[in-house]
């Protein structure tokens, strides 16, 4: 991994309307193993609300990456991470229907478009 991947990312305050579909932007293209839909991924990530620009979650804040089967994560991650390579950094802008559902769904982030910057550390 490059030094860039080992530092906490910054997400600029969003401007304009929230995207209505999943947006995937490679900030750094990795050269390691490629994530598949069936992969278990080890990632560092930062998440902010598109509406407020406020951080709502970050593995960086906890000081350790997370490891999950991709199939157990929100649909935006399930669709946005496959094809990413280890060593890469990707930004996902995830509309509510691919995140935690509409407002009133019972989840505190329901109804919100979320922005994640994800560093892919390993796949299995």
UniProtKB/TrEMBL annotation:
Family of this protein: Belongs to the FKBP-type PPIase family.
Lineage: Bacteria, Bacillati, Actinomycetota, Actinomycetes, Micrococcales
InterPro entries named among the record's database cross-references: PPIase_dom_sf (IPR046357), PPIase_FKBP_dom (IPR001179)
Alphabetized GO MF terms: peptidyl-prolyl cis-trans isomerase activity
Residues covered by the PPIase FKBP-type domain: 38-124
Catalytic activity of the protein: [protein]-peptidylproline (omega=180) = [protein]-peptidylproline (omega=0)
Enzyme class: isomerase
Name under which the protein is recorded: Peptidyl-prolyl cis-trans isomerase
Entry keywords, A to Z: Isomerase, Rotamase
This enzyme's EC code(s): 5.2.1.8
Domain of life of the organism encoding this protein: Bacteria
